[in-house]
Amino acid sequence: MIYIFDTKILPSLCLWTLALLPIPTLVAAEETSTTEETEQSTPETTQQPAPSIIERPAHTTPAAHSARDLQQVPPDNATELIQLDGGDDPFVGFFRQQSGAVNLGGIILIADDQTHPLQNANLEALRKGLTEFGWATLSIPLPSPVQPLLPKRTLPALKPIKDHASTPENPESETKTTSNAPPSEPADATSSTEVESTTATNASKETSEAIVHTSDRKERIINRGVAAINALQARQTSRFVIIGSGSGGVWATALATTLQENLDINLVLVDPTSSTDISAPDIRSLIPDLEITTLDLYSAAPSAEIGKSTPNRLRLMTARRENLGNYHQIRLPNTTHRPQGYNWLLRTVRGLLETYIINAEPSPKLKKPKAEPEKANQPPGSFANTG
After folding, report:
1. What is the DSSP letter of 337?
2. pLDDT digits 0-9 by tens, 47-64
3. Which residues are CB-contacts of 123 (< 8 A; sequence separation ≥ 6)?
4. Which element (helix H / strand E) includes 46?
5. Which of 53, 102, 249, 288 is 20 to 30 Å apart from 323, CA to CA?
């Protein structure tokens, strides 16, 4: 078949075909643009996942670090983390063996209530430095201190305000109201007794809660000290020294007075202070019970102790009244609290231990060999009469 097209119609057909061809592409482009607009119009919260809850670490006391000390790398290669059993109170001790063959004894270090055993700069200098002079050191943490209970929150007393509001300004109106007022009914005795009984029961509950809250910390510290002694004894140690710094000096003194009867033990106090724990004893009440060599080291300027009843002075006066000849108090310069004074503190403590503990002990008596009986002078060739 032969199709005949008019030459005038062909150009118009080409234009119409070209116009119809881009229609699908334009539709697809419009669809993609609309989908992008809808995605952008949606809120950002739908695109992003819900924010995760930030878990902040709970506040822990210095004594609560013992559980995670086993998971941490020791601060130096010479420190050994040992698990100690204080009865129902397991804890971690930081042991450091003496560097030489000479074993002078073991030192138990007790830091302040508010610091970690390895965060006390003075004790760290002694813990590491004394091992170079024949002493093995063992730092033990203390249980969490017992803080005073917060008082219950109550409303302010409204009685003075009501009394002030009920007083009239005109005294004549007051007399009229009092004369016209009906007679007051007697107070109910049962209600007053009920109030007194409830207050008494509340007071007894509060006191019982306080007793339970403050009853076992000293026993736990004593058990920890005994566990530290047993650990040192297992390492062939027979001479012991307890060093307490800050409020740790109170618990070091309490531990020394408990163990002094059965052990060769001595006490060193480095700037002792009173403890914020409400169950802690007063260190001055423990001094009269000391029967061992005690070195009381404190840092103060010379002018700060003249004519003043400072805690350092009061401790010394207590020891003098009890006639404790083995109680020695030594003043340290203020530089011992600074890094440049740590080496000076180490040399001082080492010298005091050697002077008042090692050299002061009586030396063992040497056994003299038995003298052989003298033989009588005999001429050569003769035989002794064995009769």
Report:
1. G
2. 555 544 444 444 444 444
3. 109, 111, 117, 139, 243, 245, 270
4. helix 44-47
5. 249
Higher pLDDT, 259 or 370: 259
The single-letter code of the amino acid at 277 is: D
Yes or no: domain 65-144+217-358 corresponds to CATH 3.40.50.1820: yes
- CA end-to-end span of the chain: 170
* pLDDT above 50 (res 269): yes
How far apart, in Å, are the Cα atoms of 296 and each of 35, 120, 279, 299, 322? 82, 18, 23, 10, 16
Q: With contact defined as beta carbons under 8 Å apart, do 140 and 108 qualify?
A: yes
Query: How many whole angstroms separate alpha carbon 199 and alpha carbon 207?
Result: 12
Whether 235 contacts 100, CB under 8 Å: no
Helices first, then strands: H and E counts in the chain = 13, 8
All residues at 6 or more sequence positions from 324 whose CB lies less than 8 Å from its CB, including other chains: 287, 288, 290, 294
What residue spans of 214-364 are helical by DSSP H? Answer: 217-233, 248-259, 283-286, 311-321, 342-353
Which structure tokens are listed for 233? 């004894």
C-alpha distances in angstroms, 264 versus 32, 235, 282? 90, 16, 24
Handedness of CA 78, 84, 86, 90 (dihedral sign): positive
Name the pLDDT band for 218 (thresholds 50, 70, 90): confident
Is 337 exposed, middle or buried (CB count within 10 Å of its CB: 0-12, 13-18, 19+)?
middle
User: How far is the CA of 336 from the CAs of 121, 252, 263, 344, in angstroms?
Assistant: 10, 20, 31, 7
